[in-house]
Amino acid sequence: MRGPKGVGRKRRSSPRDVVSWSTLFWCTLFVVINCALFSGFSFYAFRFLFGKTFQPVLVLTWPAPSNKPISPITISVREVVMFPDQALVFLNNYPRTAHVFTKDDLHCVYFSANDSSRSQPRFNQPPIDIDGGDFHNQIVRCPLPPRRLTVSVGLKHNDDVPVLPSYSWDWLAYDALVDRDNTTIVFVKGLNLRRERISNTEKFECVYGWDFRTTRFLLRSDVVSIAQEIVRCKTPLSVLSFPRGPNNTLKVSVRVKGGGAKGILDTIARPAIRPGLANPTHRKEHEMCLCSMVRNQGRFLKEWVMYHAQMGVQRWFLYDNNSDDDSVVVIEWLRRANYNVTRHAWPWLKTQEAGFAHCALRARETCQWVGFIDVDEFFHLPSGLLLPDVLRNQSNYDYVGEIRASCYSFGPSGLRRVPVQGVTVGYTCRLAAPERHKSIVRPEALNSTLINVVHHFHLRNGYEPVNVDKGVLVINHYKYQVWEVFKEKFYRRVATYVADWQEEQNVGSKDRAPGLGTRAVEPRDWAHRFCEVGDSGLRDRVLQSFVDPQSHLLPWQEEGGDGVVQVQQQQKVIKRSVMMMRKIRARRKHRVFL
To answer: Which three-class secondary structure state does DSSP give residue 302?
Structure first.
């Protein structure tokens, strides 16, 4: 007998008892929509009942930026480097505040080098100068601290003074670039390697890190090449992937193997990416550029830049080696006059070769050819050609990596004051034989060691230097100018392997003036020295091509300036003399007629 329905027997499942996925989806969507509507209705009902007295606040992990301008209330020092005549304090960058400090904002603060708490009495002095026109690159120049004291900088309205260890300029890794092949190029002082020689890489290694007081936490890499004061290192992959910005803290140095931590050069060098062209053979923006290291050459820069612009130069890289004249003002004037001139602060002493190598790496990106000359040197083309004409002729030969031009050294030419129309017009007497040569190089042809001496570089395999004919291109080197200008050479020489003239070393070097010794004492016959051959070729071309027909002035002469007034007075005297001579001749003719 069967029991009641559903009792005593197993129930079979029916297709109607299984819920389909589509039904589940629409039911879930219905519930979610109803919850959202209910939440919205509840919120607006609550707001309607309580008005605006309830305002939910969203709390962020990082505080929201304020609309008010941020004024700098503190200052951060990155490094302090001691030089023979001043202390350089490098400031940290503040992109958030973007404040450019002036001498009115800061003072140099002196305290005991062993006083970490800064509790001992200290004194302040105004800075000598502040270098760098933007917040990314500011250097405060302070007077040297007395013995057993150190220096930092602080804001005048704030007693908080940041303190960091100081380094000496002559045992230092001071700059670094990551090249297009991902090697790191480190610029150093203190290794005292031989001139123009490749040194043994096995004696050195490169080290990366933050704390160089011990080798325990440093990342080491092999040295690829080392010559003079430039070291090329293999860059570890972790360093290449490390983020680099204005406040990069990762530094690189060079260690002498076997010396432990004491063999590591002090360092302020932070590897910076130097972007390179994807296709080095691609035609570059500028055909001809110039690199020069300058110190207190402000009054000569206009003539040098304007003249070479007419000769075909398109870009100028000026490495300023501690100028304290108006060079910055003159460079800014040239920039506003649409001359493509950039100034790079290069405070490192006796590092001309390293500075030229650094400049070659920068110029390589945009310049087909780069000339390395001083501000008292001018390319002269006796044939009447322009520099691009000479370069195009040489570019027809793929093996040419360097063009060498002979240098003729000019003397004071009888002058005792700086010529008001410029050096190209004022000095017209020189030594008969050329003293040396200077170079125009193809940056892509440079040897990876970047060895350079006396303005010429070592080239890669497959490239050769060529000597250009003297009838096509020479360099007028206004080396022995009036004593007022020439005596500045006794201050300090910029080349690494050239002794300062005040030292009793290499007294017979061609870099020195014969017979002067080591003291800046003007000889009585200085105005007439170094005059063997009269040479007015460049003077004639300048007067023919550059003089304004209305004002009768050269482009680098300021109308109304003292020099211009002197020229105008000289011209008036000449005109009066000519008129007097004409009158005298007329009277003589009249007497003869009678």
So the answer is: helix
Asked if residue 263 has pLDDT above 70, the reply is yes
The CA-CA-CA angle for residues 159, 161, 164, to 5°, reads 170
Q: What is the mean pLDDT of residues 252-278?
A: 84
Q: What is the mean pLDDT of residues 222-244?
A: 91
Q: Contact, 183 vs 277, CB < 8 A?
A: no
150 and 181: one domain? no
Higher local confidence (pLDDT), 499 or 476? 476
Same domain for 338 and 485, yes or no, is: yes
Output the 3-class SS for 442-462: CHHHECCCCCEECCEECECCC
Task: Tell me the CA distances in angstroms from 348 to 183, 345, 429, 506, one per residue in order.
Answer: 23, 9, 35, 22
pLDDT at residue 316 tops 50: yes
Long-range own/partner contacts, residues 456-461 (CB < 8 A, 24 or more apart):
456/372, 456/402, 456/404, 457/356, 457/360, 457/402, 458/196, 459/401, 459/402, 460/401
Give me the half-sphere count of Cα atoms (radius 13 Å) on the Cβ side of residue 188. Answer: 28
If pLDDT is split at 50, 70 and 90, which confidence band does 455 have?
confident
What pLDDT, in 10s, does the model give residues 89-131?
Answer: 998 865 545 568 888 889 999 988 776 555 566 789 999 999 8
* 393 and 327 in a common domain: yes
Residue 559 lies in a domain: no
Reduced to 3 states (helix: H, G, I; strand: E, B; else coil), residue 100 is coil
Calpha distance 432→196 (Å, rounded): 29
Reported as a single tens digit per residue, the pLDDT across 548-557 is 999 999 999 9
Beta strands at 400-409 and 464-467: parallel, antiparallel or unpaired: parallel
Q: Which of 11, 174, 199, 155 lies closest to 80 in space, CA to CA? A: 174
Mean pLDDT of the chain: 81
Residues 156 and 179 in one domain: no
Domain that holds residue 112: 76-167
Measured in whole angstroms, how far is the alpha carbon of residue 246 from the centre of its chain?
16
DSSP-derived 3-state class of residue 139: strand
pLDDT for position 39: 59
The residue with greater pLDDT, 283 or 372, is 372
Return the structure tokens found at 587.
């009277």
Sign of the CA dihedral with 503 first, then 507, 513, and 519 last: positive
Distance CA 360, CA 401 (A): 13
* Contact of 289 with 369, CB cutoff 8 Å: yes
The residue type of 593 is F
Reported as a single tens digit per residue, the pLDDT across 322-356 is: 999 999 999 999 999 999 999 999 999 999 999 99
The beta-strand segments (E) located in 193-295 are 204-209, 219-221, 223-227, 230-234, 251-256, 266-267, 272-273, 286-294
Q: How far apart are CA 517 and CA 519, in angstroms?
A: 6
Do 255 and 204 form a contact (C-beta atoms < 8 A)? yes
Q: Please report whether residue 506 resides in a domain.
A: yes
Domain CATH number, residue 242: 2.60.40
**DSSP 8-state assignment for residue 557:** S
Q: Which tokens belong to 47?
A: 């707001």
Structure tokens belonging to residue 303: 């003539």
CA angle 556, 299, 349 (to 5 degrees): 140
pTM across the whole model: 0.80
